[in-house]
Amino acid sequence: MKRSCISFLVLTALLVTPSIKAQSTALADLVQGFDEPKTTVASGSIDTITYASTTVGTNRRALVYTPPGYDQTKRYPVLYLLHGIGGDEKEWFNQGRPHVILDNLYAQNKLTPMIVVLPNGRAMKDDRAVGNIYDRERVQAFATFEQDLLKDLIPYIEKHYPVIADREHRAIAGLSMGGGQSLNFGLGNLDVFAWVGGFSSAPNTKQPADLLPQPETAAGKIKLL
After folding, report:
1. What's the DSSP call for residue 214?
2. Which CATH number fits domain 2-16+41-221: 3.90.1640.10, 3.40.50.1820, 3.40.50.300, 3.40.50.150?
3. pTM of the complete model
């Protein structure tokens, strides 16, 4: 799991900081083509799932990436990848190409196969990214997603996909608002997540003392932050 999570989290950081490539020729050479589809590379699959959310009181959608050679008789680590405030479950797929990046990494034998879940982090009945996305109710919905994730989405994934259902094989990461969610939800639920990543994270809504009341204990549980 360490190999897989480190590779993907580092790759996500590169993905969300494209200006770095323009500033550094060396880095540009390093990452050139990392998110470009290749006809010689086997592709994973992206599916749209619908799950019942008791938290929101409606059915909600998420995308699920399964790796090339996906085998339902095997068990996989799982990463929950969260979008920014203006996105939805399709944001990473449309703008970040995580499926292409993962496919290329698998082809280079640099990544342990994993399942990646791309949810809509705006947990409300009308969860579309329309209108005033900074409206108080819509922003609050990102906090509500914690319970939707823990009580509804994760149980659905673990029932319908062959994921390894323990904290050591479960990761959460995100960009901007999703990064803030990942820090809040990940560090606040270390019995659920051992791998936590935040990229350009939104300002945290919880004080460090509340989020990590026992830093030494938390440090012993976190595999990667």
Report:
1. S
2. 3.40.50.1820
3. 0.85
